[in-house]
Structures are given as structure tokens and as C-alpha cells.
Amino acid sequence: MVDFKQDRAIYLQMAERICDEILAGKYHSDDRIPSVREQAVMFEVNTNTVVKTYDLLLQWGIIYTRRGLGYFVTVDALEKIKQTRSLKFMTENLPELFSQMKLLGISIDTVVRKWEEFKDGEKL
After folding, report:
1. Theoretical Cys-Cys bridge with 117: which of 16, 46, 122, 124, CB 3.0 to 4.6 Å?
2. Which stretches within 1-124 are classed as H helix?
């Protein structure tokens, strides 16, 4: 069973997971994604929840439909997801991170050093 968080609607979490899979390279441009029924079985949710998820992804321009064939990843889905998530990171996550760094007395040099270790494959 898929473990969903209680703080957000399931269909939103499912949409984010599909976007995560696109970012991770599981699905590429014009790849078919699982049908509504297949997805409902995988996520152990009602088909109406998947329909709501797919409707949202259609609105976001992440997927498109081919009548009788199913749902497919749009050509620019990867770039759209990166752009949206980067903006969210810069406007929401980064200010919170900076606030915590200031409160805890963590310098930017320390963060840069940790980033370099992370990029080189070392554990933080």
C-alpha cells in the first residue's frame, strides 16, 4: 500500500509522485503512463482519485491524451516541472533554510562545503 501524508489531498500527492518519476527519468517525452485503472491498482485508490490526478496533470501541461490509447508525457513536461519546482524552492524553501541558518549560526561556507561533499558522492 502507498503511504500518503494526511496534510494534503491524495490526488495532489499522486500528481507530485508522477512528476517525481518524470524528473527521475522513469517517463520521458511521449511515453505512455499507466492507465487510470492501472494507476488506481498501483496506488490502491479509487479510480475517481486518479481521474482527478490526471485532470490536474493535463491542466499543468505535464500529460496529454490520445483518444483510445491513454495518457502520455508532454514534450516539455520535464522542463515545466523543473521550472515550477525551482521557483517554489527559491521562494519557499530557500528563505526558510536561510532563516534556520541564521538562527543556528551556520555559515554559507559550511553549507558550500557540505554541498561539495554531497556532489562528490559523500554522505552529509
Report:
1. 122
2. 10-23, 36-43, 47-60, 77-88, 94-104, 108-119
Contact 40, 47 (CB under 8 A): yes
Residue whose C-alpha cell reads 482519485 in the numeric block: 49
Q: Are 45 and 7 in contact (CB under 8 A)?
A: no
> CA-to-CA distance for 38 and 28, rounded, in angstroms?
19
The answer to whether 117 and 109 have CB atoms below 8 angstroms apart is no
- CB contact at 8 A, 15 and 57: yes
Q: Is 14 exposed, middle or buried (0-12, 13-18, 19+ CB in 10 A)?
A: buried
- d(Cα 93, Cα 76) in Å, to the nearest integer? 24
Q: Which residue has the cell 490526488?
A: 11
Judge whether 10 and 45 are in contact, CB under 8 Å. Answer: yes
Distance between CA atoms of residues 25 and 47, nearest Å: 25
Q: Give the 3-state secondary structure of residue 10.
A: helix
